[in-house]
Automatic annotation (TrEMBL):
Residues 124-190 form the PEGA domain. The keyword Transferase does not apply. SUPFAM superfamilies: TPR-like. Keywords: Isomerase, Signal. This is Thiol-disulfide isomerase.
Length: 409
């Protein structure tokens, strides 16, 4: 009988001489004589890779050698590689193809047949568990004596019927296919019935891992958020400096479908606006005299809000928000770069629009950490703004980003 080394070393020389006939027998397209030296080099590299334990590399060499017109024993070499790679199914397929080759040497055929037969007769390890444990196991109707689940046993190759039984519960039956020594794992759920238990079936305990995911969209429709933000304003053609902003929102989820939700509510924004007096505007106005602090005011905005939520993962939801409302200033003296000097109590109210995004992360079923990546407030200019020497009568814009906390109730 030939060893693997002999197959690699001596048979190739014989096969090269017979290569045209072998190629026809294997239905491999005839190759030019220039391919045979290439195939021999690849075979030698494959033998070297196999000896060094580089079985994946050996597979690539032997496959290419066979493609170039190498003899059938390349299939046997490939089968040996796949056995080393713990792929017995693929190895068996290659051995079957090798044995289908006509005119094999009798000792080669006998050795390959014995190897294939050994592979097919490998026993598999069957592991059986059940819920609850302590059940009896039958293999093809025969009781596995002295053992209860969980258990492991060796089973012969072939198809088997496994039955798991426990007193007072319906039996569990399943067919298994043991092949090439592959491990088989079987988990038998043995559910109780009302008759067996003498009463109604008890529901399973609550899954603690479901609590946060279920609450994100299903159980807590009312959301309150408080956010501290940095706001950058623009007053018509005049840019402002960054200011602190506070936002408070409340929404109620009216519907949800899969990962999407729809909510409505309201939002309040408070900002301490400040600006400069670069044009040296007067600091007095009739009838109030000295204007004092005429370059700051409290900006207050209120919006009716629509919210579309998209659940990105079990704890994370991204929101697109938009709405309309009103904006006003709380100030009794105004001037500087933005306003014609005045001591009117208020510059009035203006319609305003809000557009923003928001990301919520569920820390607990009720508590959220909220990030405001971007929010925009847009409004017309207030009464009394300047048109010269600088123009603040255009659209006023506030861009914000921030972080906050919230509760879902």
């Amino acid at each position: 009988m030939r060893t693997f080394a002999l197959v690699l070393a001596s048979s190739f020389a014989i096969a090269i001489a017979l290569a045209p006939d072998v190629a026809r027998a294997q239905s491999v397209p005839a190759r030019g004589t220039e391919d045979l030296p290439r195939a021999r080099v690849l075979d030698r590299e494959g033998a070297k890779a196999y000896a060094e334990g580089r079985y994946n590399d050996a597979v690539r060499y032997f496959e290419e050698a066979y493609r170039l017109g190498g003899p059938p024993f390349e299939l046997w070499n490939l089968a040996k590689c796949y056995l080393r790679l713990d792929q017995p199914e693929h190895a068996a397929e290659l051995l079957e193809r090798y044995l289908a080759t006509p005119n094999l040497a009798s000792d080669d055929r006998d050795e390959a047949t014995q190897q294939l037969d050994t592979l097919r007769k490998r026993s598999s390890t069957l592991t059986v568990a059940s819920s609850p444990p302590g059940a009896q196991v039958r293999i093809d109707g025969k009781v596995v004596d002295g053992m209860q689940t969980p258990l492991s046993m060796s089973v012969a190759p072939g198809t088997h019927t496994v039955t798991v039984t426990l007193a007072g519960r319906p039996p569990y039956t399943k067919q298994i296919d043991a092949r090439y020594g592959r491990a088989i794992i079987l988990d038998a759920p043995l559910s109780a019935t009302a008759a067996a238990e003498g009463g109604p079936v008890k529901p399973p305990p609550a899954n603690p891992y479901d609590s946060i995911e279920d609450d994100v969209f299903a159980k807590r429709p009312f959301a309150v958020r408080a956010i501290a933000a940095a706001m950058l304003p623009r007053y018509g053609s005049v840019g402002g400096t960054g200011q602190a902003e506070g936002l408070l929102s409340a929404t109620y989820r009216v519907s949800s479908a899969g990962a999407l939700s729809l909510a409505f509510g309201g939002l309040l924004s408070f900002t301490g606006d400040k600006w400069s007096n670069t044009i040296a505007a007067p600091t007095t106005a009739s009838p109030c005299g000295d204007l004092g602090s005429s370059t700051s005011a409290t900006a207050i905005s209120a919006f009716l809000l629509g919210d579309v939520g998209i659940r990105l993962f079990s704890r994370g939801t991204f929101h697109f928000q938009g709405g309309g409302g009103v904006a006003t200033y709380s100030a009794d003296r105004l001037g500087g770069d933005l306003f014609v000097p005045t001591c009117k109590a208020s510059p009035g109210a203006r319609p305003a629009m809000y557009l923003g995004t928001q990301f919520d992360f569920a820390v607990t079923p009720a508590v959220r950490v909220t990030v405001l990546p971007i929010a925009l407030q847009v409004q017309p200019a207030f009464d009394g703004v300047r048109s010269q020497p600088i123009d603040t009568s255009g659209i006023w814009l506030r861009a914000s980003l921030g972080v906050g906390v919230g509760l879902d109730l």
